[in-house]
Amino acid sequence: MSDTIAFRDVAIIGGGCYGTFYASQLAAARGRGKLLVRSLLVVDRDPGCRASREVEPDPTMTIVAADWGAFLDEFLENPAPLPGQPDDAIVPSPLMPHLMAAWLLRVARTRWPDRAAAVVSAEQPVGTPYDVLAPDGTRYISFADWLCPTHCVEPHLCPVIRGPRTWEMSDALEEYAARLRRAHPTAGPALFVTRHRAFGVGMFDVAEARAARELLEREGERETDFLVGTVSSCHGAVTRFRLGR
Question: Is the pTM of this model over 0.85?
Answer without folding.
Answer: yes
